[in-house]
Amino acid sequence: MTEPIRVLICEDQELVRTGYVTIFSAQPDIVVVGEAADGRAAVEAARRLRPDVIVMDVRMPVLDGIEATRQLTGPGVETPVKVLVVTTFNVDEYVYEALRAGASGFLLKDTPPARLVDGVRTIARGDSLLDPAVTRNLIGHFAERLRPTDTSRPEREAVVRALTPRELEVLEHLAAGLSNAEIAAELVISTETVKTYVSRILTKLDLRDRVQAVVLAYRTGLVSNTG
């Protein structure tokens, strides 16, 4: 029997937090291992409980959800935890910063319960919760902020050395917001082959998911913000 997905709920509003607990506790494959009402408590609970997925609010007292996410899964963290950000904001500054901090994806607080549950399962599997349309929207909103600098040149060179020409091509399409099926059509290869390339890219670059790949591609200038 497969072990249930261990979830930590981090939300400062007690009513919302209780709602999440009720929703997840009703699922046979999910168990709520803890709750936290502020960012600092979230970090402490996550390090102690080691959940599979953290459901993280953005605006919380003591320490906000973005900084809590950074401390738990950002650059330099040896054993990162997967974070699903649930926010009242759409693709805006808060969500962007959360993704850069290491979150695996986001949902809005008015998301239907079934979608929320499916989101936790998606992230637990190791996938990112950003569909291609959202990825394109994210890029469109934050192209200026993703513009490469001189300090990103060594990182770009390291990426080019690590990937084959074909893998670089797949990364460019992925960063443009294309789905696996769309990439397959563009490159005239099978969807399964694309999945293999994406997996290799993430492994070689030590990236957790497609979200991180998109940010890396733009930050290093592998993909042009101006098209």
From TrEMBL:
Protein's organism: Saccharomonospora glauca K62
Residues where 4-aspartylphosphate is found: D57
The protein's name in its UniProt record: Response regulator containing a CheY-like receiver domain and an HTH DNA-binding domain
Domain spans labelled HTH luxR-type: 156-221
Keyword Phosphoprotein tagged: yes
UniProt-listed PANTHER family: TRANSCRIPTIONAL REGULATORY PROTEIN NARL-RELATED (PTHR43214:SF24), TWO-COMPONENT RESPONSE REGULATOR (PTHR43214)
Organism classification: Bacteria, Bacillati, Actinomycetota, Actinomycetes, Pseudonocardiales
Source organism superkingdom: Bacteria
Record's keyword terms, sorted: DNA-binding, Phosphoprotein, Transcription, Transcription regulation
GO MF, one example: DNA binding
